[in-house]
Amino acid sequence: MKHMHQLKSIWIAGALLLALGHTSDLFAGQKGAIRVSLDNYDWKKVSGEHFFVYYTDDDKFAKNVLDKAEKYYVRIAQGLGYPRYSGFWTWDNRVPIYIFADHKAFIQATDQPEWSHGMADYTHKQIVSYAWGEGFVESLLPHEMAHLIFRDFVGFKGEIPLWLDEGVAQWAEESKREYMSQTAMEYYKEDKLLSIEDMMKLDIRLLKDMDRIYIRATKTREGKMAALFLDVESLVKTYYLESVAMINFMIDRFGAKRFTQFCRELRDGKKLEEALQSAYPNKMKNLDEFEERWREYLEEKLSS
After folding, report:
1. For the segment 110-132, what is each residue's pLDDT rounded down to a tens digit?
2. pTM for this entry
């Protein structure tokens, strides 16, 4: 094939690191229980309208987390076009956020891999991390909240591809949107994006061989099929970058209301292509047309 690329790893943000292993933050309620030992800690607590923040050390950090969480709750729900249900995450249904004093305590309590910085447990509807500053407050917190909000809306019964779930969570990290959007256009320009077929079937939770080189399908700007040669870190980064870029396309091009309708169709049991056809009639009737519209969108952005 003419177009073959070896991508180099640039970075893996906190959310990427969470996903590189078992992605337990995504499907804790569906893939078995996560061990979280919260006993034997002298927890302090601050309470908000939708959250309880439990912490052991820094009062100021905990209050900042609560303040940000309440703001993110409104912003994420409104940004996705989801209604705020009466009693949604309020009173006894408030979501607990547990903040350990340091990374060592977090790892010991959760049995997560060493690279993990936080997790969302859907079974118990809680977020667990540690006090690691702006990276937690500005990135991981909205990411994990978006997982919970999204799953509260769509549930687990429908055909929800992994890229959609992770794309929504990454989209919630507002500080990264511009960077991710610009980088996605660069990847498109250089023929480095995965094909939609690969995005649908790829389960990054199973990528455990750090020394392996993966050969994945791509499509060039001219519409020809080609191949990418990627190490694990590069493949994960590309997957996440593309996931959020596709969510951004759907919301930016067609609006939050149509995206909400699309998610509602999935919640009600429709297959992915049926949901696309219902929410985006005469625009995207199937995955091939979805990919075509998205690439047209990227081409327009590059030309503007």
Report:
1. 887 777 788 888 888 899 999 88
2. 0.79
Question: How does 62-80 read in b/e, with b if 16+ C-beta sit within 10 Å?
Answer: bebbbebbeebbeebbebb
∠ Cα 182 300 242 (to 5°)? 40
Q: What are the CA-CA distances from residue 130 to residues 66, 140, 173, 287, 289 (Å)?
A: 14, 11, 18, 40, 43
Q: What is each CA distance from 222 to 189, 218, 284, 292, 301, in whole angstroms?
A: 11, 11, 20, 12, 16
Q: Can you read off the two tokens belonging to residue 292?
A: 């075509």
CA–CA dist 29, 152 (Å, integer): 12
2 by DSSP, 3-state: which? coil
Per CATH, the number for 28-155 is 3.40.30.160
Nearest to 59 by CA among 44, 38, 71: 44
Compute the distance between CA of residue 105 and CA of residue 211 in angstroms, rounded to an integer.
30
Per-residue model confidence as pLDDT tens digits over 33-64: 456 778 889 999 999 999 999 999 899 999 99
Domain ranges of the chain: 4-12+163-303, 28-155
Q: Is the pLDDT of residue 30 over 50?
A: no
Q: Are 69 and 81 in contact (CB under 8 A)?
A: no
The dihedral through the CA atoms of 84, 88, 90, 96 has a sign that is negative
Distant-in-sequence contacts of 151-155, Cβ < 8 A, 24+ apart: 151/29, 151/122, 152/88, 153/80, 153/82, 153/263, 153/264, 153/267, 154/263, 154/264, 154/266, 154/267, 155/267
